[in-house]
Amino acid sequence: MPPRAVALLLHGGAEHGLDAVPPWRLAYLRMVPFARALGAAYGGHGLEVRLLRNRVRGWNEPTLPAVQDARWALRRVRAERPSLPVLLVGHSMGGRVALRVADDPDVTAVCALAPWTPEDEPVEPVRDRTVLVAHGTHDRVTSPKASYRYATRAEATAGRLARVEVAGESHAMVRRPAVWNRLVLDTAARGLDLPGRDGDLDHAWCERNPHRLRTRL
């Protein structure tokens, strides 16, 4: 089947850091299972999955190399797969990058996992996009409260938005991997209009799993 959509995965990093990102860095490897899950679930439906490895580790205000890298990757996707819708999946700093570059014209959906969302993070980039913000309640690296406040601010801007808490989960997302995979797959299906969607990001689905998830928006 020819490609009909693209998923671009963005890994985490640090606030500061100019060291290169090798392929064995944990933050990068953490995105590999999501790439495999997306390919297994929707590759047969035409989803092409790409995993970006940043040049350097840090966010590094004001140059923002991770944002530059993501925009470069989106330009490359556009050149190679023109007019295809794009899903961004980012974890931690990668979640912030995904939310920041969602204003790219080909992006239709964003899945931000345990995102780093400072109080001044703009919400305009997610205008009219499908957005999922998911955070573990025991995250001590990025703030679940901050991502909730971001989601609250972005609710009126995004086309549709869900904010989900994964109860008892930490920043590494290793305690309930099936839950995180389900959230990513559902966002891909909803945001890219893929066939064979396995469940929806709706309140009813969250209620059927009260021991794992709580929805706030």
Automatic annotation (TrEMBL):
It comes from the Bacteria. The keyword DNA-binding does not apply. GO terms for molecular function: hydrolase activity. Keywords: Hydrolase. Pfam families: Hydrolase_4 (PF12146). Residues 3-118 form the Serine aminopeptidase S33 domain. The keyword Hydrolase applies. InterPro entries: AB_hydrolase_fold, Hydrolase_4. This is Alpha/beta hydrolase. The lineage of its organism: Bacteria, Bacillati, Actinomycetota, Actinomycetes, Pseudonocardiales.
